[in-house]
Amino acid sequence: MGTVDIHSHYVPSSWPDLGDGLPRLRVDSEREAMIMIGTKEFRRVEDNAWNPHVRLADMDADGVSVQVVSPTPVFFAYEETGDVALHVARIFNDIALEICAEGEGRLLPFCQVPLQDADKACAELDRAMANGHRGVEIGNHIGDRDLDDEGIVTFLQHCADRNVPVFVHPWGMKKTPRNDRWMAQWLSGMPEETHLSILALILGGVFDRVPDTLRLCFAHGGGSFPYWMGRFENAWHNRADLIATSEHPPSYYLNRFSVDSVVFRPEALRLLVDTLGADRVMVGSDYPYPLGERPVGAVVDKSDFLSDREREQILFRNASTFLGIQPPI
C-alpha cells in the first residue's frame, strides 16, 4: 500500500435524465450501464464507475491507498448555457460526495464547474469545496476558448487564491473523417489537445499573471507536449517575431505544472522525468476505463532507471503535496 492515484473517473448510476440533449445513463443491469448522447451510445460503463466497494477492492489489489475521483468529461456540459452547466455540476458534485462518503477516507472527490461562466464557476467551486470536495477537474478548453481565455484565467486565479488543486483533462475533440476511426480522437486528438493548452498557458501569458501557488496537473503525461518541448523552445528563440509572447522562454515554466504517469512505457516515463523532473510527475490510472493503466503504477514499477527517492516521489509524495494530504506511509 502507499500509491496515490491522481487520475480516475466516476459515473453515478443514479444520474437523472435531464433531457435537452444532455448525456444520460441507460442502466442495463446492476453492474452495467451505457452513457447515451441523445439516441447514440457513447460508452459502456460497469459498476466500478459508481460502486465504491468495487473501487476499493481494485485499489487494494493494486496497492493504491488514496484515489482522486473526478467527473467523466462528457458530463461537463460546456456546450450549454452557464445556468444549465451549473445545474448539471451541482447534481454531479453532490452525488460524488455520496459515492466517496463510503470510501473509508480513501476516495477524494474532485468537483466540476460551469467553466464557460467564470462567476458561476467560482461560486460552484466554493460551494463544492465547502461541502467536502478536495479539488476541481476542468476540461482544457471551452469551444475555441483555450486556457488563456480571460474568463478561464479568472477561474484559475480564484483556484490559486483558494489554494485548490486543478486537474486538467482533454475533451471535446472535433470529429473529422480522418479521426473518426480506430479511436483516433482519443489516441491522437487527446494528446494534441493537452499540448495546445499548455502552449496557451505559456504563450498566452497565464503563468506570468497567475501566482506560482496555483497547483495544476495535466492528464496523460501532458499529452504530446514533453516530446516536443525542444521544438517549442527552439521556435521561441528563432521565431520570436511570432511566438515570444511570454516573458520567458518555455523551459522557464516547466516547474509551474505537473503531469500524471499514464504513459504506459518506461521510455515515455523517462522522458517526463528528464523533461519536467521527478517532482512534477504523479501516478495516474484513468481508472476505470479501458485506456487506463492496470495495475495502477505499473509503468513506475517497470522503470528501473528511477532512484528509490524518485519512485517514492512519483508513487505518493508529489501527489500528497498536490492534494495537501499526509503521505500514506
What is the second-level CATH architecture?
Answer: Alpha-Beta Barrel
CATH topology: TIM Barrel
How many discrete structural domains?
1
- What is the name of the CATH class? Alpha Beta
Radius of gyration: 19 Å
Number of strands: 12
Number of helices: 11
User: How many strands, what sense, and barrel or not for the largest sheet?
Assistant: 9 strands, parallel
What do these coordinates show?
This is 2-amino-3-carboxymuconate-6-semialdehyde decarboxylase. One of its GO terms (molecular function) is aminocarboxymuconate-semialdehyde decarboxylase activity. One of its GO terms (cellular component) is cytosol. This protein is α/β, with parallel strands linked by helices and about 325 residues long. The protein has one domain (about 5-10, about 50-325): Alpha-Beta Barrel (TIM Barrel). About 40% of the residues lie in helices and about 15% in strands. The strands form two sheets. Strands 1, 2, 6, 7, 8, 9, 10, 11 and 12 form a nine-stranded parallel β-sheet that branches. It has a three-stranded antiparallel β-sheet with strand order 3-4-5, with no helix packed on it. A hairpin with a 4-residue loop joins strand 3 (about 25) and strand 4. Helix 2 (about 80-100) packs parallel to helix 3 (about 120-130) and helix 3 runs parallel beside helix 4. The relative contact order is 0.14. The model has no long low-confidence stretch (mean pLDDT about 95).
